[in-house]
Amino acid sequence: MSAANLDAIFAALADPTRRAIVARLATGEATVLELAAPFEISLPAISRHLKVLERAGLIARGRDAQRRPCQLRAAALDEITRWTQHTREAWSGRFEQLDDYLKTLQAKPPKEKKNNGRKRS
């Protein structure tokens, strides 16, 4: 997946309304009216949110007679999962290196403090 596609997905999911729509579609397909029901925003506003999600590849809109059901596209979510897993593995590796370094520091004997020419009483 290209960086632009990943950017579009994360930008689409940055909005709480769109995240709620994706969460609702995770339970099954729904029409625009069904998706709009829990929100206090206009149908055109919901349609704009759906267009953003569709352009990002997160949802697909179908046609079933007069119904226009929306459904979640799992492929886009799989891309997010792969990206986050790759990033997580990279950070895990870095933390393991840091842990190893800290262990080597702890294993070294402490250095004696210099007196700097002062006499101790």
Radius of gyration: 26 Å
- Within the largest sheet, what's the order of strands? 1-2
User: Which structural class fits the helix and strand makeup?
Assistant: mainly alpha
- Helix count equals 5
Mean pLDDT: 87
Largest sheet, in brief, is: 2 strands, antiparallel
The shape, in one word, is elongated
The end-to-end distance, rounded to whole angstroms, is: 70 Å
Helix content class: 55-70%
Number of strands: 2
Q: Into which percentage range does the β-strand content fall?
A: under 5%
Q: Uncertain runs with pLDDT below 50, 5 residues or more?
A: none
Spell the H/E element sequence: HHHHEEH
Short précis:
Helices cover 60% and strands 5% of the residues.
Could you name the key traits of this structure?
about 120 residues, mainly alpha, two-stranded antiparallel sheet, 5 helices, about 60% helix, about 5% strand, elongated
General description of the model:
With 121 residues, this protein is mainly alpha-helical. Helix content is 60%, strand content 5%. It has five helices and two strands, in the order ααααββα. It has helices spanning 3-13, 16-25, 32-36, 43-55, 74-107, and strands spanning 59-61, 70-72. The chain has a two-stranded antiparallel ribbon. A hairpin with an 8-residue loop joins β1 (59-61) and β2 (70-72). α1 (3-13) packs antiparallel against α4. The longest helix is centred in the C-terminal third of the chain and has 34 residues, at 74-107. It is elongated. The protein starts with a helix and ends in a 14-residue tail after the last helix. The model has no long low-confidence stretch (mean pLDDT 87).
